[in-house]
Amino acid sequence: MFHGTSRVNERGHLEIGGVDTIELAKTYGTPLYVYDVALIRKRARAFKQTFEKHGLRAQVAYASKAFSAIAIVQLMAEEGLSLDVVSGGELYTALKAGFPVERIHFHGNNKSREELEMALRAGIGCIVVDNFYELSLLEQLSREFERKTPILLRVTPGIEAHTHDYILTGQEDSKFGFDLHNGQADEALKQALASPHLQVLGIHCHIGSQIFEATGFVLAAKKLFEKLAAWRDQYRFVAEVVNLGGGFGIRYTSEDDPLAPEQYVEEIIQEVKRDVEMFSLPMPEIWIEPGRSLVGDAGTTIYSIGSRKEVPNIRQYVAVDGGMSDNIRPALYEAKYEAVLANRVLDEKEEVVSIAGKCCESGDMLIWDLPLPKAEAGDYLAVFCTGAYGYAMANNYNRLPRPAVVFVENGEAQLVIRRETYEDLVRLDVPLKTKVNK
Ligand SMILES: Cc1ncc(COP(=O)(O)O)c(C=O)c1O
Ligand SMILES: N[C@@H](CCCC[NH3+])C(=O)O
């Protein structure tokens, strides 16, 4: 349940990064996302060191869709990671953060002309081309910009990874990428190679998210290298880069049994070595793009507890001051979480309650059947593992302002996203021109 630097301090409070989370809640309000910076650094280093240990050239690109903000992008830059962005907005955040442009990779299945122009103007390191529309648009824009744009071709290898249906991406029937087996990927390569304005660095695939076994990644790598061997023979094309995506699972609850993050990479490397040897291919640079496994278990959300409702003999509902507006994953994927009373961590668990959000929606439940000490208004609930796709998918449903985010490390806290105000909520509203008098 406890991750990274999380522990219980002498006051019986949850402490993260050497900072008392109750003090944080009092200073910054709730709901509040707290990120354990040391844990993020540890994860980043573990990924990088696994490649270094094998003497392989590699890039570990943080998939910023998991949590994009200037501070986290700067932290990843500090750790020497690359960055995967998936929209103009994420790219803008990266540029604002001063992230090294040559290490930014641009994803997306429907990049607009404006987004591609923005990427070309910035001179980013690589565009991961997803489809034929994008291929011809990018070719045309690169010609206009007089650029030779470095690209990867995203393919769907036809792998069914074992995860929630909504977060599968590598299977044949997917909206992403060129099909590897029906001729689409070959045609895309031919078209890209024919253009003097595109430089094909290599190939990319991403098979899904929150995956617990290495088998899917190993299978995907094998399929990619088989294709690369065929492309060498048919088109004399030799890939400089093979990108195997992200998707490494994390432990949200004790029911989850993922590998250690670097273990996925270890198994991928073993397969890559086998394939390179089997097909007599030069060792390419290996890229991966983890999101969740870099920031997921480093994030904890602190809520204030408010109302309760008892449904006699059935259930005790305990409501918090956030919900699907700051964590939509339980409603969207039936995602499970663990939590403790942050101000009374060691108190005996006396009841089983269900944690409700405050949105006007029956499905706004964060956790079903959670053993807790008798919780009352004024207590604080800490929900663990909310660092990935939490703030990133937060919304203003019911016009709830989005929470603040703090980073903690070595006993120090830093506010990295301020809490939205009501004024922020109406900032974009345009009042009616004429007053309607009835
Ligand atoms: C192309 C691509 N790369 C990387 C990721 C990051 O995935 P995860 O956060 O599961 O590591 C995703 C999201 O699933 C993705 O779509
Ligand atoms: N947002 C999803 C995963 C999608 C990953 C992005 N391709 C989640 O919370 O698990």
From TrEMBL:
PANTHER family, alphabetized: DIAMINOPIMELATE DECARBOXYLASE, GROUP IV DECARBOXYLASE
One Gene Ontology term from the biological process aspect of the record: lysine biosynthetic process via diaminopimelate
The EC number(s) attached to this protein equal 4.1.1.20
Cofactor(s) the protein requires to work: pyridoxal 5'-phosphate
Which key words tag this protein in UniProt? Amino-acid biosynthesis, Decarboxylase, Lyase, Lysine biosynthesis, Pyridoxal phosphate
Reactions catalysed, as given in the entry: meso-2,6-diaminopimelate + H(+) = L-lysine + CO2
Quaternary organization: Homodimer.
- Identify the residues that bind pyridoxal 5'-phosphate: 247, 289-292, 389
Residues recorded as bearing N6-(pyridoxal phosphate)lysine in the entry? 65
Q: Which InterPro entries is this protein grouped with? A: Ala_racemase/Decarboxylase_C, DAP_deCOOHase_LysA, De-COase2_C, De-COase2_N, De-COase2_pyr-phos_BS, Orn/DAP/Arg_de-COase, PLP-binding_barrel
PROSITE patterns attached here? ODR_DC_2_1 (PS00878)
Q: Which domain of life is it from?
A: Bacteria
Q: In which pathway does it act?
A: Amino-acid biosynthesis; L-lysine biosynthesis via DAP pathway; L-lysine from DL-2,6-diaminopimelate: step 1/1
Q: Name one GO molecular function term.
A: pyridoxal phosphate binding
Pfam families documented for this protein:
Orn_Arg_deC_N, Orn_DAP_Arg_deC
Start and end of every Orn/DAP/Arg decarboxylase 2 N-terminal domain? 38-295
Task: Briefly state the protein's biological role.
Answer: Specifically catalyzes the decarboxylation of meso-diaminopimelate (meso-DAP) to L-lysine.
Query: What family name appears in the similarity comment?
Result: Belongs to the Orn/Lys/Arg decarboxylase class-II family. LysA subfamily.
Please identify the protein, giving its name as recorded: Diaminopimelate decarboxylase
Recorded hits in Gene3D superfamilies, A to Z, give: Alanine racemase (3.20.20.10), Lyase, Ornithine Decarboxylase, Chain A, domain 1 (2.40.37.10)
